[in-house]
Description:
Helix content is 66%, strand content 0%. The protein is mainly α.
Amino acid sequence: MATALILGLRCCILACIAVGMLLAEHLQNAVNETWAWLLQQWWFNSVYFETVWAPVCFTVLLVPMYRLIDSIPLFDRYKIDKKHRFIPFTALEMLKTGVFYMAPLALLDTFMVKHYKGCGIDPMVWKIKRQTWVQTTRALPAEPPSVALIPIHIVCALVVFDMFFFLVHYSLHKNAWLYKTFHALHHDHATVDIHVTNQLTVVERIVLILSANEGLKIVNSHPLTRAIYVPIFLWLLMENHCVYDWPWGLDKLVPFGLMGGPARHFAHHVQGSGNYAPFFTYLDKLVKRTNGHSRKIGS
Ligand SMILES: *[C@@H]1O[C@H](CO)[C@@H](O)[C@H](O)[C@H]1NC(C)=O
Ligand SMILES: [Zn+2]
């Protein structure tokens, strides 16, 4: 049953990719038009766009989505923790995390010039921007991104983020002082829950955002790709803490068990160790193998 579902879904995904390739020109046209429209919006040109965009995706899209999922009794059977109930986000909680999240980033936005490399922006524009102290607009490329590069860049940026954050997360668990100071808060909960996604120390959250940003920068992603990346990235982080083990989850859809998924991250929270990588599994497998190997040599 489950395998038939996965097989069917994989065929659907492949069919969608094939149709997307056939309609590439139309899709590119839509991307071009979207980009031309975005370039004319003051809010998209603002240096604060990305800083505000993440909480907007979180509050307007993702929290209501998980609330809806929780209200459907049919899905209860997929709960990892059967007793779990969705606790609504209070306005105060949203406001508090919103402010804590945005304040340090808004500071960076105001005083640092944003460089979107590899999209054909004249470096002269950055030089001119650097002559003023306070930034209000970001230098955006005139050209839209290539439609094929959008998903490729998103996947690559996720892989790079996963690698960076694996190293950080692993260190946070292996050093007692680091753990206590920066990461214990994320593990301080009665049950795992999407609220835990956001339960981060300021330093930890900044490292997380910088790692995500670095992933996007390394692949020279276009600002439109960056904007599309945000809800996907947040959704993946929330999935990890959503307490549902979907039979159609990415951990089952993506072949070779490449993706970790909610059940593995739940295990990390229950055991307090293992499954350190946020999205993929290969690094934890590598560590496990290396540790097993050195233990064998040691004995
Ligand atoms: C989209 O824009 C690019 C760059 O401006 C242009 O080269 C390309 O022909 C456009 N494609 C479509 C399908 O409109
Ligand atoms: Zn942890």
